[in-house]
Amino acid sequence: MILVFAGGGLRPQNENDADDTNGVDRSGTVVVTGERRETRLEDTTTRTEVITREDIEQQGSRNAAEILETQPGVEIRPAIRGRQIRLQGLDPQYVLILVNGMRVVGRVDNAIDLTRFKSEEIERIEIIKGPSSALYGSDAIAGVINIITRESNKPVVAEADIQYGSGREKHFGSGNEMHANSYLALNGEDASTSFTVGWHRSDGYDLTPITDRDKLAANFGPLLPDFDLDAIIQKQGSTGPEFNDLNVGNRTRINITRDFFLLGNAQYRYLDQERVDVSPPRQVIERSNETHDFMGGLSPVYYLDNDGKLQFSYAHARFFDTLTQDLVGSEEIDQTQTQEDRLHEARLQLDYGLFDDHLVSIGADGIVEEFVSERIDEGYAYRHRVAAFLQDEWAILGDPKLTVTPGVRHEADSQFGERTTPKLAARFDPTRKLRLRASMASGYRAPSFRDLYISFQNPG
Length: 460
Prior knowledge:
Layout: E1 3-12, E2 30-31, E3 39-40, E4 49-51, H1 53-59, H2 64-68, E5 74-78, E6 83-87, E7 95-99, E8 102-103, E9 122-129, H3 133-136, E10 143-149, E11 156-165, E12 177-187, E13 191-202, H4 212-220, H5 229-234, E14 242-255, E15 260-279, E16 283-303, E17 309-327, E18 335-354, E19 358-373, E20 380-398, E21 401-413, E22 417-431, E23 434-443, H6 449-453
Parallel strand pairs: 7-10
Antiparallel strand pairs: 1-23, 2-3, 4-9, 5-6, 7-8, 9-10, 11-12, 12-13, 13-14, 14-15, 15-16, 16-17, 17-18, 18-19, 19-20, 20-21, 21-22, 22-23
């Protein structure tokens, strides 16, 4: 599938508050998603929206879903698991979700649950709208969401926070939800590290609870005319699940020399969740999930002359989920299902300046994906992807500023075949307070393991 977008941007720009919203000064902010390298926000050719740490703290949001739902063009919806994103009107399977530039695994119904990513571990979120397959490959049709975890340039930072309340959108009866987290960052001349720990729990809640009167009616109501048993059964479903949620994260940098350093990061999450669903005509199903979610990466980086940088990155992600389903009053559809997603991702990229007005990025990616579940015929599926990409940022004029950035990527997928995706972005600043951007690109989405293999068996 290929979609082509063409867009232009017209934005009055104050010299000292580039891409400023909500009163937050973003001048000097460095982003990495739009050009796939470090670039000051005010210098990007590709339009990049940034939600900073200061924004997150002002909002009081608890997770990435709540952070993103305030953004124009971003729609956050309830999902089978947590909350999912729609970007520019396109469904979640067309949005690529990254953490520190690494692909996120663990899609349920083709959607990533954004409540997995807690506010205490997020430094900023970068949003690219429109096809980005020329840099990131499959899935980046609607755009890219890149979640950057926290780090600090201060010598010592220590924070702790605890919240308690109902945790629901509507206040109804009593409830118990608690969020506690702590953050510690140490920064020295040779190394820096930051740790995040969070614990989140809820007793769950129900906006339509079963009352003593309902219980009495369920026993004797069938003897009465016009009795509606279905209405009472529907009340047995829970509105909000009961859960215990632990997240632990670390981000570390070790300086080997002045121009060479190692960057590592790791995140782990554990979720234990229970809920009650009602399926027509009169099925009450108790469901519980136990989820282990891990992501980790290591990246050596070497700075060269002429604005050059050579970087190799390796990342591994694993998502393991166990679903237990119990039909109340029957064993007909009782079952336990497991889903395990494994991802290995390697990337080599060289950025280098040429002829004073060109900054070339060239690189290669390799991805291995594995999927294990009893819901597919052989219980195991495998695929790999290899890709090469090239991008050139050409500064045609300096004053007024005119920059053109063409790029192309060729990718081979063991399940889908080969695909070449080009892009062209341009930026023109006729004055210091006016900035024009336009871009055109193609994107594609290779079929997922869910699309290719999973057998669907829906109760009810």
